[in-house]
Specification:
alpha/beta; 2 domains; six-stranded mixed sheet; four-stranded antiparallel sheet; 22 helices; 10 strands; 9% strand
């Protein structure tokens, strides 16, 4: 029977579900055990000052009733000393608790961000940027209750109630035991709502994460929603989300309100009960007026802590819901076991890059994105990868860079299997110039130095010159220290591409991966970028994803992909002679260019 009762109580309070998140928090709390030990001492000091003031009220009142002026003066001096001690306890408690909580949150943010940086590309593909940001902001900021106020309150209130009862027994044991019957009412006033609080808090956290994702999409795509006049639609959607958020927060407020009502009702009932019985004892001569005032005032510290436990438990569970979301991220297996070492001279490629029967699926059981890839990229060669949209070209590049691991087969670098998880420094062998350049807020210099942070000023300028970017930079008021805006919004497409090329030049990696960097540029800009690319490719092993077949006719090897497989490979002339997919694609592009030229002539 007792065991069954314990199990029901455990299920009601959800103690089993708290173990994992509490183990995580204890790791961080343990780093600042001295501060929390100090808070423990202050906890007992706070209870002591509360009991002291009750004692002071009792004896001060009795001295006044008895006309003992000397006693009144004596107790006033003691009260002044108690006030000083109480003020010091309050100050130290606020300072220590705030400092400890902020340090724990800072450590958790640092570790969470570090872990996120180690996660594989697949995780980022399955989770929205706004959701990831919400983990580092909203979720971490919501754990205060589990490491600060609510946690300390859950420890302080039961101790306060126990100490209060012991003191009340000494004041009047009959009245104390009669009031003890109110304790179950105080404990049960909000316990049944704890489960609901956690459920709704968890749903609220998840909804806020989705709102962050929505806002991230809106602000990152501001040019699109202006172009298509979607302001009204997005505003309506945001208003709808805000209404739902308000509804969820109102429901939580309602639950917290019931906690408060239960606590207040139990406290009021205790006050009336103790005052009524106490007045009877005073009238009978079994209790002094001072004892009655002390009893009534201290009675609040017996009932309020017990009824307040429900509210604190609800707040604690709201914080635990945020910890669980953070823990799910921390439990995701990281790609890298350690950070890459600092930039060092990467040895030259001796034999080349090889793919041996590489197959990859983005999800188990799904159709393979690439299958059975067998390819050798000799050192110093230029290999172009072509094919229709969806053929698997970008997936191939992602595999070569280690963003994903092959489902089957292996990728070798100079005969050694690539394992970026165990050896992240292998990425030093590769420089990547994407079709859409990723830039970061900051200056041109900051973004260029991402290629090699220890590069000298002369190397930086030379890389910009080689990328046909230096002359443009000199026209800017702050030169290399010009802010480029979020994601390089202040730069044109060609300038972004040349900055990416300069960054790759600075990295000076033996393998170069080019994801057609000129397909979206005008002819003049394309010429400047193409010149920069040719300088970058000199002496390097290069793989190129090409959309315009005219740009890769001189490649040492052209690999034609279709439906995730290598359909054919050879030189430009060999593939034309074979009359396969490459020849068909080449003919279609040639006819398209001729049609565009005739249209331009007719328009002229």
């Amino acid at each position: 029977m007792l065991r069954s009762y314990k199990q029901r109580l455990k299920g009601l309070l959800e103690l089993g579900e708290l173990r994992k998140p509490m183990r995580l928090l204890l790791i961080y709390v343990g780093r600042y055990w001295k501060a929390y030990a100090g808070l423990g001492i202050l906890l007992f000091a706070g209870i002591g000052t509360t009991l002291f003031f009750t004692w002071f009220l009792q004896h001060m009142t009795d001295a006044a009733v008895q006309g003992n002026l000397a006693g009144v003066g004596h107790y006033l001096l003691l009260g002044a000393g108690g006030t000083l001690v109480s003020s010091l306890v309050v100050f130290c408690n606020i300072y220590l608790s705030t400092t400890a909580v902020q340090k724990v949150k800072a450590d958790l943010k640092n570790d969470l961000f570090e872990h996120m940086l180690r996660l594989p590309a697949g995780y980022y593909g399955n989770h929205h940027t706004g959701e990831l940001v919400a983990h580092l902001t909203h979720d971490v900021d919501s754990i205060d209750g589990a490491i600060g106020s609510n946690l300390l309150g859950l420890l302080r209130l039961p101790l306060m109630a126990a100490a209060t009862f012991i003191y009340l027994v000494q004041v009047n044991w009959q009245l104390s035991f009669l009031c003890l019957f109110l304790v179950p009412l105080a404990l049960g006033s909000g316990a049944l709502l704890g489960k609901l609080l956690r459920k709704h808090s968890k749903a609220l956290h998840e909804f806020v994460g989705r709102m962050h994702s929505f806002l991230g999409d809106v602000f990152s795509g501001h040019t699109v929603f202006r172009s298509y006049m979607l302001e009204n639609m997005f505003h309506s959607r945001y208003m709808e989300q805000n209404r739902e958020l308000l509804r969820m927060e109102s429901r939580l407020a309602l639950l917290r309100g019931w906690f408060s009502v239960g606590s207040g009702a139990a406290g009021s009932l205790a006050y009336l009960f103790s005052m009524g019985l106490g007045a009877y004892f005073v009238a009978q001569g079994n209790m002094t007026v001072g004892s009655l005032l002390a009893f009534v005032s201290l009675m609040q510290y017996l009932i309020s802590p017990l009824s307040g436990l429900a509210g604190l438990w609800g707040g604690f569970q709201r914080s635990i819901a945020a910890v669980e979301r953070i823990q799910r991220v921390l439990e995701e297996p990281a790609e890298m076991k350690r950070w890459p070492l600092g930039k060092a001279d990467t040895p030259a490629l001796r034999w080349g890059l090889e793919l041996r029967q590489v197959t990859f699926r983005y999800e188990a059981g799904k159709e393979a994105a690439v299958e059975g890839l067998q390819l050798l990229v000799p050192a110093g060669s230029v290999v172009a990868v072509v094919g229709p949209s969806g053929a698997g070209k970008s997936t191939l590049f992602s595999l070569v860079q280690g963003f994903y691991r092959p489902t089957q087969g292996e990728i070798l670098l100079d005969g050694v299997a690539l394992d970026f998880g165990a050896r992240p420094e292998l990425r030093g062998y590769m420089a990547y110039v994407p079709q859409e350049t990723s830039l970061f807020s900051g200056t041109l210099r900051d973004n260029l130095l991402m290629g090699r942070r220890e590069a000298t000023g002369e190397e930086l300028v030379q890389a910009a010159k080689d990328a046909n970017l230096h002359e443009f930079i000199l026209t800017l008021p702050q030169g290399y220290d010009t802010e480029i805006g979020e994601r390089g919004v202040k730069l044109s497409g060609g300038q972004k591409q040349r900055l990416a090329i300069a960054r790759a030049i600075l990295k000076n990696a033996p393998i170069l991966l080019l994801d057609e960097a000129t397909s979206a540029l005008d002819s003049e800009t394309e010429h400047a970028v193409q010149e920069a690319l040719e300088r970058l490719m000199r002496g390097r092993t290069t793989m190129v994803i090409a959309h315009r077949l005219s740009t890769i006719q001189n490649a040492d090897l052209i690999v034609v992909m279709d439906q995730g497989r290598i359909a054919e490979q050879g030189t430009h002339s060999e593939l034309l002679a074979a009359g396969g997919l490459y020849a068909r694609l080449h003919r279609l592009q040639h006819e398209q260019r001729e049609g565009e030229a005739e249209a331009a002539t007719a328009a002229g």
